[in-house]
Amino acid sequence: MANEVYTATTVSNPKAPFWLGPASEHLDMLRFGLKMLEVLLSLVAFVLEETVSTCLSCSPLYFFEFVSCTAFLFTALLLFLLSTTLYSRVGISCWPKVDFLYTLLIAVLFLVASCVFAANNGKTTVETVAVVFGFLAMLAFIFDFFVFLKVKGNPFQGAKAPPTTNGAVPPPEAEKLNGDANGKA
């Protein structure tokens, strides 16, 4: 009998985590898909860069390797943390700021690394394709950055506090209640 009373009013938790998708207020479905795309593009750029057998000028290659590997590993970690409930156990309370700055930083690093590697490589097919995937990953990070701005706004602009009155009496209410204080209508 008790089950009959509670089953009609009980609803499932809409924020309950599921196997593939966002489980927190920090990551919606669009940004989850973008983070997955960033992980995949970074991984492909890294793997392609690793298949380069010889280099004329190795510094751009190593810088591109560093950026693509860092982007892959840290974006995968960020995606894992934000799409599960583990983000609450890490001890970071400013996830929007971390995500915002990280996405912008990796986009800029991919832009620089891809441009430098495109300018200084042996012009082999593998190097060219790695550069293309570097630019695609950079575009994914930039798109994610702008989606973040559109959906959540700038996380460094705090909520505007109501103006202080410095102890002054607040103005009277403009709209009166329907009845007076004695209960007469």
From TrEMBL:
Pfam families per the UniProt record, alphabetical: MARVEL (PF01284)
Q: Where, per UniProt, does this protein localize?
A: Membrane
UniProt protein name? MARVEL domain-containing protein
Record has Membrane as a keyword: yes
Which UniProt key words apply to this protein? Membrane, Transmembrane, Transmembrane helix
Q: What is its main location?
A: membrane
Q: Where is this region: Disordered?
A: 160-185
Q: Does the keyword Transmembrane helix apply?
A: yes
User: According to Swiss-Prot or TrEMBL, what is its membrane topology?
Assistant: Multi-pass membrane protein
Q: Which superkingdom is the protein from?
A: Eukaryota
InterPro entries assigned to the protein according to its UniProt record, in alphabetical order = Marvel, MARVEL-CKLF_proteins
Task: Please report the stretch or stretches of sequence annotated as the MARVEL domain.
Answer: 26-153
Which chain regions cross the lipid bilayer? 70-88, 100-119, 131-149
Q: Name one GO cellular component term.
A: membrane
